[in-house]
Amino acid sequence: MTGAPHIPVLLDEVIEALAPAPGSLIVDATFGAGGYTRRLLDAGATVHAFDRDPDAIAAGQLWAETQGDEPRLVLHPRRFSEMLTSLAEAGVSRVDGVVMDIGVSSMQLDQAERGFAFSSDGPLDMRMSQDGPSAADFLNEADESDIADVLYTHGEERQSRRVARAIVAARPLETTGQLAQVIRKALGYRPHSNKGPAPKDPATRSFQAIRIHVNSELDELDAGLTAAEVLLGEGGRLAVVSFHSLEDRVVKQFLRKASGALPSGSRYLPEVGTGPAATFAQVAKAIRPSETEVARNPRSRSATLRSATRTAAPPRPNLPQSERPNLPRSERNAA
Predict the structure, then answer these.
(1) What is the per-residue pLDDT for 320?
(2) Please, which residues have CB within 8 angstroms of residue 191's CB and are 6 or more apart in sequence?
(3) Is 6 within 8 Å of 53 (Cβ atoms)?
(4) pLDDT tens digits along 100-139
(5) Residue 331 burial by CB count (10 A; 0-12/13-18/19+): exposed, middle or buried?
(6) What are the residues facing 272 on neighbouring strands?
(7) Mean pLDDT for the chain?
(8) What is the pLDDT of residues 198-227, one digit of tens each?
């Protein structure tokens, strides 16, 4: 861990949003290479770090073992949706901060054998936890309509039916390279054009969608945000970094509802009840990486940080999952 090469995006901004102090108790819900955790420990905080990836936990364990008799890093080899249960087992019911860095980590992207990216060919895997059904299992066994649903809902792929049809016709698929080629061919992608720079590789949208589905990432995010609302004490800070519009939409809508910023509705209808007391306040304006950070780390260009402070109000009753794009199939491109 001491030589961890991956620095999380918006590091200074996240630490400022969390405002760690000596003795504070903070949850790093997505430990990864430990970049946020390292800075939190340096500030004197105790960190309970979660990661479902056994590789991240194994590396973190080596680091934790060097801390002496009273370590301030406690590792939880679990999904962050299990925060409430895991922390309760550790005797923790209140925390001062929760940070979540949503999505795939640089470590996972850079390992071809993990199958998250098509920049280098590898097995079609994409499992963060390294267990359960893989991307290959899903693509080789699911119905064409189910594949189209995933591509459209989680990747906002307007040609989802065309891509799903091509995937089914090409089965069995075994590698990331095979899948990328199938998607590109289905969408008529021509990377070498004489009319300016090459367009963004269309396989990106489908790879994102499949990865989100395989790892149930949006459900995890919903559960993690709900757990943070329960765990944070008054004045506790929540900081969430997301990397695409689907994640950011979930976080934004969660904070809008939790802070009482409900839609006003039609001016021709009577006012609706105010609902539960606001559980979050001081919702900060979304923060994006600086030009300097993007130049240093191009993967940060799509990152968005949203943060807020917990009020004294009790946690709200369970609410429906955040709105997500889910148009009927009849409204999709029929090509």
Answers:
(1) 45
(2) 198, 199, 201
(3) no
(4) 999 765 555 555 556 567 677 889 988 888 888 999 999 9
(5) exposed
(6) none
(7) 85
(8) 567 888 899 999 999 998 999 999 999 999
Q: What is the CA radius of gyration of the chain?
A: 21
Of 147, 145, 111, the closest CA to residue 128 belongs to 111
Q: Among 257, 254, 227, which residue's Cα sits nearest to residue 242?
A: 254
Q: Closest Cα to residue 250, out of 282, 212, 288?
A: 212
When pLDDT is averaged across residues 24-44 and rounded to a whole number, the result is 93
**Residue 302, CA distances (Å) to 103, 251, 256 in order:** 12, 15, 21
pTM: 0.86
Question: What six digits make up the tokens of 124?
Answer: 């079609």
The one-letter code for the residue type at 36 is Y
Q: Name the token pair of 31.
A: 């430990």
What DSSP element (H or E) covers 136?
A: helix 135-141
Note the Cα 182 to chain centre separation in Å: 26
Cis before residue 172, ω within 30 degrees of 0?
yes
